[in-house]
Amino acid sequence: MEIRESTEADFKGLLAVGRQAFGDEEGPEIVELVQWLMVDTTAEPRLSMVAVKGRRIVGHILFTRAKIKANEQIKTACLAPLAVAVDYQNRGIGRRLVEEGLRLLKERGVELVFVLGHPTYYPRCGFKPAGPFGFATPYPIAEKDADAWMVCELQPGLLGVVKGRVLFADTLHNPKYWSN
């Protein structure tokens, strides 16, 4: 299994993984999201990574630029989406993509990473609920989903000190991505 940054040649394959991983209902929306984020200049710098088995792309993760409204000097990123082909799920591929992505982001000076994701999955990779630390989403999320709004601290000492509304690439400033 190879984990690496994606190239233009990987684009169709990483879209196919997103479509397949999220199924007929959510897959088309995920594909559209990735397509827009890959051309959205407000998402730069971005980090797109793939997991490759043989010649097949079996996983994809995308990190895009974010900022904290009251603390724009803090280098921040957003994780969205993470997709692993159904026949390769539960093999640690998603976790490897997250961990390698966080490692590269840290090397590049990113200090905080945010995700709106599964509240029992992402804590395994170092994410914690973001709300209690004073971080707000661009749009309200349901109270039942509050634990899904998470942050990972790549530079120790920021949680509990830095807070504010988190802003994302223009593509993600759409209420449909913040409600169920």
Write a short abstract of this structure.
This protein is of the alpha+beta class.
Topology of helices and strands:
Elements (H helix, E strand, L loop, with lengths): L1 E4 L5 H27 L9 E7 L2 E13 L7 E9 L8 H15 L4 E5 L11 E2 L5 E2 L12 E5 L10 E5 L12
Parallel strand pairs: 4-5, 7-9
Antiparallel strand pairs: 1-2, 2-3, 3-4, 3-9, 5-8, 6-8
Verbal overview:
- The chain has 2 helices and 9 strands; from the N terminus they run βαβββαβββββ.
- A hairpin with a 7-residue loop joins β3 and β4 (76-84).
- With 180 residues, the protein is α+β, with helices and mostly antiparallel strands.
- Strands 1, 2, 3, 4, 5, 6, 7, 8 and 9 form a 9-stranded mixed β-sheet that branches.
- The model has no long low-confidence stretch (mean pLDDT 95).
- It is 23% helix and 29% strand.
- The chain has helices spanning 11-37, 93-107, and strands spanning 2-5, 47-53, 56-68, 76-84, 112-116, 128-129, 135-136, 149-153, 164-168.
Shape label: globular
Tell me roughly what share of residues is in helical segments: 10-25%
Name the structural class.
alpha+beta
Give the overall pLDDT as a whole number: 95
Strand content: 25-35%
Euclidean distance between termini CA atoms: 33 Å
Q: Extract low-pLDDT stretches.
A: none
Number of helices: 2
N-to-C series of helices and strands:
EHEEEHEEEEE
Query: What is the rounded Rg?
Result: 15 Å
Number of strands: 9
Question: What composes the largest sheet?
Answer: 9 strands, mixed
